[in-house]
């Protein structure tokens, strides 16, 4: 028997709000500003499904950016992600409007409880016939903490300790109904077999959960798990739990090193490295000619991003108030010590630029298109660049972010996907009955 050729896993990265990860996206002249309308999200999901993407996934944050200057004013004024809709309703609408594409959402292990999350994703998995995915995050900034009655967020190690126990409780709840527990015998009046529905009796450091879950075993057994931790603890957590790992590596060599490290950690955790997909977040700027694509890229980089929007988002991301610095201040050791996230970001930007970095560089990196691979050019150019990353084991596919919506995804599906499909790099149809099965065939 010959093995199936390896193919790219493709995920469309979304936010249920006014911007994509690129904070200037709402200002692009052809951008659709209907982000408060369900049709906006179902149209994008159907577009990605037409391009045979494996999944549409939604990032989330539980606060308006308010670390910069201890105020939300600049986030509101410049549209730096002040809008975040509830994802359960958005995913429900997408499930009803699509048939095959996976649907994923971010839920925090810091501010939710295991029973709530287990029930939410088991329900989504049933309603979608096995297409649900949960992006596990630990939440990192004080703005979110202050919306949940706390003054500041938990420390790094505490967040991951809590997250591990959270996962144990959630998985136990998903498994609290055996696969054949439902009887549904009208004649005898037996609905389900009580010997096959179990209390989990979880008692740990962080949680006490009796169970069982009020939703029968999900179609996937357990919904697909996504994770994006980049620290040592984050990579270990992903090795233990994740089916899909999101990365943000700026260049090929860094990405290849990260890829090998994460696969080794998966193997050390006793899991099959081939079962875990490692996907960098990427942008594609496509044009009918190379000059058109380069001009579009220039506009995205130079015209549509306000520097204060950048700093509002950067402050939120790193839980550090950059209002105390000028844009041209260098990144110092003191700044790095004040926030664990600054070090990794500064090192990545330094590697990308080949010089020491300033606050302006960090802000540009966060708010423009510099935080991961950027594929620019004609459809063939973009396909060539993606193929190089994929075939040299820098990744197993991509989390494609959008410069503007819905145009960036429409252009990619119309122009690049046919090239990738012709080369046998992406799927022409969905092979599995569930998201988990479809990913396993990649």
From TrEMBL:
The keyword Cell cycle does not apply. Belongs to the NtaA/SnaA/DszA monooxygenase family. InterPro entries: Diverse_substr_monoxygenases, Luciferase-like_dom, Luciferase-like_sf, NTA_MOA. It comes from the Bacteria. CDD domains: Nitrilotriacetate_monoxgenase. This is LLM class flavin-dependent oxidoreductase. The keyword Flavoprotein applies. Pfam families: Bac_luciferase (PF00296). Keywords: Flavoprotein, FMN, Monooxygenase, Oxidoreductase. GO terms for molecular function: oxidoreductase activity. It comes from Pseudonocardia benzenivorans. Residues 36-392 form the Luciferase-like domain. Its EC number is 1.-.-.-.
